[in-house]
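Quarterly update, task 2.4: flavin-adenine dinucleotide-bound model.
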Amino acid sequence: MQKIMVCVKRVIDYNVRVRVKPDGSGVVTEGVKMSINPFDEIALEEALRLREQGAATEVIAISLGPDDTQQQLRTALAMGADRAILVRHDAQADPATAAAAFMALVSKEGAELVLLGKQAIDDDACQTGQRLAALWDRPQASAASKIEVVGQSLRVTREVDAGLEVNEIDLPGVVTVDLRLNEPRYVKLPDIMKAKKKPLEVTDLAALGVEMDEPVTVLKWEPPPQRTKGIMVKDAAELVSALKQKGLV
Amino acid sequence: MSRILVIAEHAAGKLNPSTAKVVACARAIGGEVEVAVLAADGAAVAAQCATLEGVSRVLQVDHPANEHPLAAVLAPQVAALAAGAGHVLGPSTTFGRDLMPRVAALVKAPQLSEVMAVESPRRFRRPVYAGNAVVTVEVAEGRQVVCTVRTASFEAVGSAAASAPVDQRSVEFSPPAHTRFVSVSAAASDRPDLQTAARVVSGGRALGSAEKFQLIYSLADKLGAAVGASRAAVDAGYAPNELQVGQTGKIISPTLYVAVGISGAIQHVTGMKDSGVIVAINKDAEAPIFEIADYGLVGDLFALLPEIETLLAS
Ligand SMILES: Cc1cc2nc3c(=O)[nH]c(=O)nc-3n(C[C@H](O)[C@H](O)[C@H](O)COP(=O)(O)OP(=O)(O)OC[C@H]3O[C@@H](n4cnc5c(N)ncnc54)[C@H](O)[C@@H]3O)c2cc1C
C-alpha cells in the first residue's frame, strides 16, 4: 500500500458531560474540551502500525470541520501522521457531505485504504465510512477489531451482534474501526514539536467541487427523559422480596 | 399511499426479532409496508415476515450471493427495490448499521440513524451524544428517507390474522467479487438472547476474571435471564464482545435489568436506560448507576450474589 487516509473528526471530549443549552439550540460547547473522536484515534493508530510494519508508506490525516480542527490534525501529526488535510466547513456537517468531501480527497490523492471510526461520538450516526465505500464503489468492512494484510487484500475481523465475523476485502477499500482494535499511543512532547513542521493543507468544499445536499434540519435539541432515582434497599432479602412482590422474578 | 420498504434481518432461516420492531416503526410512519428478504433461499424467512401484523407484501429476492449479509452485495439490490418507496428502514443492529448507509449513498438519500420516535412521516426523534441529548429532525418534502430504527424504542408488532402475499423478485445486479465472507463465530448458547430477553443480568469490571464472571451466568440462569457486560468487562476478557451493552454495544430495554459491579458510565447507561426496572448492586454508595436504579443495593457482590441466589430459590 502506498497511502492510507485516516478521517479524524473533532468532537467534544468523551469525558465531558454533554449538556443541552437551555434554549434548545444545541449543546454547550463554550469552554468545553475538544478532542479527536476516540474511534478515529484508534483508526489512526492502526494506520501508523501498518506503516511501521512496512505495509504502507504514507499516512494522511484528513478532516472536515471548522478552522479549529487544525488542533486535532496537529495531534494526529504528533501521533505520527505524515501530513494532514483540512476541508474547512463551519457548520455541523451531515455524514453525506463528509463522505463526499473524503471521496474527493481520495480521488485527488489516490489512497488505497481509508480508515475511520465506526461512529463519531457526537452525532452517533455510523454512516460516513459506509457512504464513502458506496461512492467509491469499493468494499467496506465496518466495526473492525482486527486487521491483517494478506497480499492485496485485508482480512478483517468485525464485531457483530452474533459475535465475530471475518470478511476478506480487496484493496482499495474502507475499514471502520471498533474500540478493541488497539490502544492508541500517547503523544510525547518532542513529537508535538516535530508536528508543527509537518504539512497541514487547508482546502474547502468548493475547491474540491463538492456540492452540499443536506435535506435534514434539526428543529429542536432536548435533554433526554430522566429516570427518577428509586429506593435503596438495605439487604439482599429486601431486594428479593421487592422483586418478588412486583412479579419480576 | 406511499410505500415503506423494510429490510428484514435474518440468519440460518430465522427472522431476527428486530424486524418486527422495524415494522412497528414503519406502521407509525403510515403507508404500505413491504418487507424485503434477501437470501440465498428466503422462503422460510419470507413466510415468517408474511405473518407480521401490518405487512402488505413480502418481496423475496433469492440469489446465491445473498448467502451472507455483506453490505456491498446487498446494497445495490436494496437500492433497486427502494425505487419509488418513500422510506427505507432497517434495524439499528450491526446488520442495519453496516448496510443502510451504503444504501442511502446509492439512492442519494439522507439517513436518520437510531430513530426512537416518529412524529410525522417527515419528522423524527433520535438520540445523539450517547443519549445525552435528543434531537427532533425534519426531512425536506419530496426526499426519500433512509432510517435505522432503534429497536429498544419500539414494541414488536404481533402476528396478522391472514398472511401477506409473498412476491418473488429478481434484481439485475452483478455481485461484486471484492468482498468475501470468511466466517462468523456463532456463539451457540441455549441462554436467552440479549437483545430480546425480558430479563438481563450484566456484570462489570468488578467481577475481576472470566472465572468469577460465572457468578453472573449463574444468577442469570436462576432468573431465566440473558447475560450482558460492560465494556470494561469485555475489554478485560471476562465476557465476549457480543455481550457488551451500551453506546458501542447493544441497546436493550428488558423488563428487568440487573447491573452488578458496573459504575454507570454514560456510555453504558445509554444502552440500558429504557429498561423497565433497573437493579444496581455496587459497593460504592456514590456510584452513578444508583442515580437511575429503581432498586439499589450497596455491598460486596461476591457476598451478595450467592445470598440472592439462595433467597430466589426459597
Ligand atoms: C467511545 C466510548 C464508547 C464506550 N462504549 C461503551 C459501551 O458501549 N458500553 C460500556 O459499558 N462502556 C462503554 N465505554 C466505557 C465506559 O466509559 C466505562 O469505562 C465502562 O462502562 C466502565 O465499565 P464498568 O462499570 O464495568 O467499570 P468501572 O467503571 O471500573 O466500575 C466498576 C464498578 O464496580 C464496583 N465494584 C468494585 N468491586 C466491587 C464489589 N466487590 N462489589 C460490588 N461492586 C464493586 C465499583 O464501585 C465500580 O462502581 C465507552 C467508552 C468510550 C470512550
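Highlight for this quarter: Chain A touches chain B through 82 residues (CB under 8 Å).
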